[in-house]
Input
Amino acid sequence: MHWAVLLALVGVSMGLKPEWQPGTYDATERGAELFVSDYNTTAEQVFYFSTEASWTYNTNLTDYNSQQQVQASLEEQAFTEAWGLKAKDTFPDSLMDTFVNQELKKLIKKINVLGAANLPTNERERFNTILSQMDNIYSTAKLCPKPGECWSLEPELSEIMANSRSYKRLLYAWEGWHNVSGVPLKTLYPEFVQLSNKASTMDGFDDTGAYWRSWYESPTFEKDLENLYNQLQPLYQNLHAFVRRKLYDFYGPKYINLKGPIPAHLLGNMWSQTWNNIFDMMVPFPNKPNVDVTSTMVAKGYNATHMFRVAEEFFTSLGLKEMPDKFWDKSMLEKPDGREVVCHASAWDFYNREDFRIKQCTTVTMEQLFTVHHEMGHVEYYLQYQDQPVSFRRGANPGFHEAIGDVLSLSVSTPKHLHTIGLLDALADDNETDINYLLKMALEKIAFLPFGYLIDQWRWGVFSGRTPPERYNSEWWYLRTKYQGICPPVRRTEEHFDPGAKFHIPGNTPYIRYFVSFILQFQFHQKLCKESGHTGPLHKCDIYRSHKAGEVLQSVMSAGSSKPWTEVLQDALGTNKMDASALMEYFQPVTTWLQEQNKQTGEVLGWPDYNWLPPVPEGYPEDVADKITDETQAKEFLAEYNSTAETVWNAYTEASWAYNTDITEENKQIMLEKNLEMANHTKTYGLEARKYDTSDFQDPSVKRILKKLSDLERAVLPDAELKEYNNLLASMETTYSVAKVCTDDGTCLPLDPDLTKIMAESRDYDELVFAWQGWRNASGRELRQSYKRYVELANLAARGNGHADNGAFWRSLYETPTFEEDLEALWNDLQPLYLNLHAYVRRGLFKKYGANRINLKGPIPAHLLGNMWAQTWSGIMDLVIPYPDATQVDVTQAMISKASTDSLPKELKGFVHGWNAERMFKESESFFTSLGLMAMPDEFWQKSMLEKPSDREVVCHASAWDFYNRKDFRIKQCTVVNMDDLITVHHEMGHVQYFLQYKEQPISFRDGANPGFHEAIGDVLALSVSTPKHLHSIGLLDKLEENQESTINFLLSIALDKIAFLPFGYLMDQWRWKVFDDRIPSSEYNKEWWNLRLKYQGLCPPVTRTEEDFDPGAKFHIPANVPYVRYFVSFVIQFQFHKALCEAAGHTGPLHNCDIYESKDAGKLLGDVMKLGFSKPWPEAMAMITGQPKMSVQPLMEYFQPLITWLEQENKKNGDVLGWPEYSWMPSTTETPVVVEPDNSANFLGLSVDEAAAAAGQWILLVLGIVLLLATIFLAYKYRKSRRLRNKSISQVELK
Output
């Protein structure tokens, strides 16, 4: 600012407006009464005018507003001068000594104090200009680490000081602020002191310090303060020693001397006045709740206005006044955009008894919530004394005003109060939680005391002349070391002016009031708690809603300064002295604890090495700006990424859905185009994310997202390779999805449903070979060359992201350095169970297919296990069922029985089930909602593909889709009405439920805690759904049978899905990891595939395979680039989840009988874990649901224990060999060829007739069949009505 221009504009002091001039008054007590009355009326107008100008400047820092503020100050001083001189001339002390009305005498004496108005016009103008200059220098000071980037004190520098744990970065912020704010004030401050002292001496005081102390109306004030500090010093020294030790543990001996002062930049605050921001570095009991409700405030949608409404409600709950309308209309509760403001929180009285405001750059934090209550305490004080004369509209002493707001915060900050207002879910009541709370309070309250004491010690020395300008800075640091035990982090000289880096110095605000208030607030708190009926420790008291406490406060506030503060204190508390005993009582538990801690670690109390200074870090300050280390900037960057990613990811997902549900070349090209857009977006933001140095970031979520975002995945590829990669993946998936196996008659069979049905239902060995071999020829063999190139490009992308190869990238998603070893250990624990199942199934297949096809000491031919990939074996349950006459829990027939009910009577429709795809999904939805989880949104039902369409090619592989707009979630499934697909439906709905639960997470966290979690969530529901108990509850079983035979049948049916799958789930990525790291060369793809399948599954191909084949490619996840070990992980952890949820549901009995249906407790546990998404490392999510952080097979083994015992007994009884020692055996492929001769005759019912006769006979049989069917239905209906089937269900009958 060009101050010469300002002075020219201000010019000489303007004359006081005529209406503001004092009149003529008789020199009598009556004249004095009229004088005071007129003064009061006029002062309200003048002070309003001046305060409004000051408000305008403080909320919009411009040269013009500064000029207006200076002029208004001059006007106010002219008023003060005119009325003060009039009072002195008309009502001398000798006259006032005769007054009966002592209050009148007190008012006139206050009016007599002219302050700066004593100064001659030119000096008064200079005084006001200096104050405005200093205010402006402080408020607009910025530290600019690089061109185009500057940090203000609020919020940037304050957030660095509070949140950074980087020694260098903290030093850079601390030194920078002290230089840019303090140094420019050095030349102005001595002149200010001179003028201020001159004004004070003209009012009869020795200096400005003496004037300030006069407000406390106590000749022993300085001595009283010293006694209070000495009383508190032992507590402060114990806190100091404890904190110093914790900082030593963090920063080490280089920067912390255990016998010296603490470097001033490490205490979480620019001035080391409060230390609560470093509480996280020294939490006494980390496993106990930390009372910081900031995140809850954010989650509940708190904003600045709501925080002030919450504070207002506290005051009104005490019977005190609500804020007037103008408060809400005119306050500045948030930092505005587009202009500079003074952010320092402050409350304003406009002296017209109706306009009161707060100026605060509020942010949604718990600390700011307390500040809001503090500032509103000031306004409540204004409201209570608003009808006092203007001269009495202030606190009984300056400390009273500060104490009123803070005493409210002592209640507001209690867990009890935070719980009452809905910001804390649960209340913990134990000594460890209390110590956590009290230490955090001590880091705010006790740490402040020496700072609150020394600031005005320094100023009083300056005003008195004991500290001359050439010793300003050295005396400042002498006092800070003496009282606080801190030192500057770099050497400071008299070229610096570090006191000026604190607002109250250039702002000319006396500071001892805060020390006084920190004593008084605990005295008030003790009294208010007593009045509210509180019993117990003082730190647990909350006076909320106590009108008796409110009455005490009202009596203090309404008096203003009309009585001596000692009298006000006596009336309210029964004592007229300040006393630290209430504060000591409040902190007694933590005082004892600190003493014990310091004794244990042998701490030195105090700082005998008082001259010690830390070294300057190497490379400082040059390397501070190499990386972006601003966490706020990172959060803004991530917010932008999140919003743009939602749009880009949604567009790609829509295009991918269109292609997967309608395989056309046009849709493929659109999908590839959107994929490139998504890759470009990922690359742009990922490269930006790599610029951040997160080592000092305190928000683990920000660090986690940036780490994830820095991995560009495929987007790291150059454009040409990226296009090739995307085309390659799309082509491989297309080849897989449209592959068909054609018979000799030209009929072509797709995988779903035709080939899948053959593999599950056919028992014709050769037909199974045909389907098995045909599918591999049509799908895998066509992909071999493409896959080789895919591996090269995938590895190129992985290495571009810093991974050794693509397998290493996939494994990194589990965030576990021992992941491969952990998997191996899990498999070794599971292998004995698998070997017993394998031997038992092999025996069953031997009985079916004979010795020519099955070797009881060899591997099992891979096509005989009911599934195209032999990954699950439930399709051959009929061949291996232990007890055919006992209940078998396969309700497929019950689901499809008489599914077409259109022609039946209304009553008969209720008799049949009538299941279809939509009903299967509705039934699954009802399972989730029964747990208190979310229903599917409308978009799900409108947009999902739940059945295979007949008019187009689709990717039938079941999958759940998140469209990243927080409302659109779908499933794509070619659903068939059978029990297997009912389980699959629950699995896919589990994915969607996961999507719904974590939809409000940042987009980078919208994923499972690890890839296996997502798969496990759906499967854990299926463990309940597949129980006879649940099937009975949803009407698919009318009767439950609980016996050993039914249990073994049930557990074997589950084992054929779960246990049979484990080695396949394990080996798929074992093969790929070895392909990616070149342990398996492309020339041995198929050989090594079958080596792994033999090693882990004990399977062999039914026909010879060569390197012309590519059998891995016959499995969807290989060409689709979907990692597979997630399924192995999920098959282990789903049983851990199941056990935990069953315990939450209160289940007793065998684990395999548990059904968590309708358990809200189980649902909450599951929902809480799902809500985390990927926001926490998976061991934390695991611990949340199971109570421990590791994967374990124990719950799985517990679940199958009855079957394990039974299998061991059966295999022993049959003499079966575990394993496949004759590992090189393969089944015979020699068959006698069948020669089909042309023949025009037809066989009809064993008769050889011509073709026309056979056709007529078929029509006759069809009509007879329909008649018999209707008759059967009618008879069944009548029978049910009369006998209710004797409690036998259709499903039970059919299952037998």
